[in-house]
Amino acid sequence: MRAINAYEAPRWLIPALLAIAIGGAALVLFALRASEWTGDEVTYARRAAALADWATGRGSDAGVFGAVIGRGWFMPGMAALGAPLFIVFPNAPNWLAALYIGAVNAALFAGFVRTVAPVVGERWRWFLVFPLLAPLWWVGAFAFLPDLPAGLLLAIAMALAWRAAMQLLAGDTPSWRLVVALELCLIAALYLRGPMLVAALGLNAILIALALPRLRAAIRPAAGLALFIAALTPWSIVASGHFGAPVITTTNFPLVIADGFGDPARTCFGPCPPGRDIVPAWQFAQERAQATGEHPFVVQQAMMRASLEGLSMRRYLQNVRGAFGRFLGDPGGWLAKKLRLSFAVPPDRRPVLQTLALAVTWLLYAPFMLALLATNALPVRSNDSLAVQSVLIKGMTACLFLQPFLHKSSGRYWIGFAVLGTWAALVLAAWWRERGLSLVRPDRAMPRWLDAMQVVYGTGFVTLSLAILLA
Fold first, then answer.
1. What is the model's pTM?
2. pLDDT, tens digit, for every residue of 333-372?
3. Distance between CA 334 and CA 326 in Å, rounded?
4. How far apart, in whole angstroms, are the C-alpha atoms of residue 156 and residue 113?
5. Cα 1–chain centre separation
6. 27, 350, 413 from 23: Cα distances, Å
7. Strand, coil or helix: what is 311?
8. In principle, which of 4, 86, 109, 453 could form an S-S bond with 49, CB 3.0–4.6 Å?
9. Most confident segment among 33-37, 67-71, 126-130, 138-142
10. How does 374-401 read in b/e, with b if 16+ C-beta sit within 10 Å?
11. Nearest Cα residue to 6 out of 119, 112, 120
């Protein structure tokens, strides 16, 4: 397995970067110490507290069941992740909960660096810490949300998948320990966020495709996929039984599609009642189902069709462009809302703080996101290690970037794939040292069809990007 060669970083560099990161994290936590939860944070925190109450005998089975499943919009992983805090501190203040979840995210980030360092080269591991220098990354790290831990688990799984892929290309078979570790990361990521299902299936598909020339070697990657599906099945069975209809991960797909791309004047077969997000549409579906005897999911599907009626491809792409503008181009879009509920920051100082945090974040965010986009457009294939990394980054970016095509999105999600930007920058740097596309070593084991797929994918990526921009 070949790692990226590089110069030796000064010994003081990593401690200096970590000191800056810790200082920035402390300042963010201090500024947000008297904040209230916002949006989905409220739901996740309540579910974690309910699960903790049940685990300590303070809550009933029926109560925790209803609290954790709720409307079926969220996976149960964040409740399980937050429950230990509320077991020890039943009335934990928000600042303590923020510190707890920040510590969990910091530990996962350390796991990411440790796992990815052998992939990119131990001498380059210092480069991976750059997201920690962005103030808005820490705002997300202290939020009671699953986006960051799920993204870090996926990145760790990608590094494990690289190891398995390199073993397959060398004619070896990945160990059961490696396969199980990979799938456990993907299972944990999925139970945190339902959309990780697509990424997990995509990562497994890449490994199985690499193993197919030797069917015997494909047994373990295929068994890993079976393990992943088996781990999802209990939640699907419980959720399906609770709602009386098939549920794979979550139930809100029709309503978020209608909310993101439909006509709000038609969603509730007319305008929906006023309210926040998709809650009024969900309430309308429940009432309509009670009145007609239909299942609420059937009503929601009909609402989606009514809302999307007459939607042209151009209008759809324009909506996608707006969603991507928030998804990629507004890393601080949710900070203003957080600051409004941060009572430790005087109102007259909030604009200055927001501007400063956004400026520093953009200085780090922009080059790494450009590197991620460039890696998706270019067929990096000068050696097997870089080719595998390029394929993995392309595949996972495609899966994560599906969200703006299905959801109105927001700037809160970039923290989950920020680490892919630093990884992509390292791949591009190594590709540059290998003299780019002109140098393709003849002794490579990567299948030619997978190299061709990189070219096809890059062409499609650029074409679709232009279609969205010009719609």
1. 0.93
2. 777 778 777 778 888 888 888 889 899 999 999 999 999 9
3. 10
4. 8
5. 28
6. 6, 19, 23
7. coil
8. 86
9. 138-142
10. bbbebbbbbbbbbbbbbbbbbbbbbbbb
11. 120
Which helix (H) or strand (E) segment holds residue 123: the answer is none
Rounded CA-CA distance 27/33 in Å is: 10
Residue 183 is encoded by which pair of tokens?
């799938």
- Smallest CA-to-CA distance from 338 within 21, 28, 79, 27 is with 28
Residue 194 φ/ψ region, left for φ over 0, alpha for ψ in the -120 to 50 degree band, beta for the rest: alpha
CA gap 388, 99 in Å, rounded: 36
Are the C-beta atoms of residues 277 and 227 closer than 8 Å to each other?
A: no
Report the distance separating Cα 275 and Cα 7, nearest Å.
56
Amino acid at 336: A
For residue 248, what are the CA distances in angstroms to 51, 81, 143, 301, 395? 22, 21, 26, 16, 22
Q: Is the dihedral of CA 370, 371, 372, 377 positive or negative?
A: positive
DSSP structure string for 416-439: HHHHHHHHHHHHHHHHHHTTGGG-
Q: How far apart are CA 97 and CA 432, in angstroms?
A: 44
- Which two structure tokens, joined as six digits, stand for 218? 């494909």
Q: Please, which residues bridge with residue 342 across strands?
A: 35
Give the whole-angstrom CA distance, residue 35 versus residue 102. 15
With H, G, I as helix, E, B as strand and everything else as coil, classify residue 342: strand
Give start and end residues of each alpha helix (H) in 278-413: 279-292, 296-308, 313-329, 335-340, 350-377, 384-400, 403-406
Give the Cβ contact number of residue 150 at 10 Å. Answer: 27
| 340: nearest Cα among 38, 136, 44 | 38
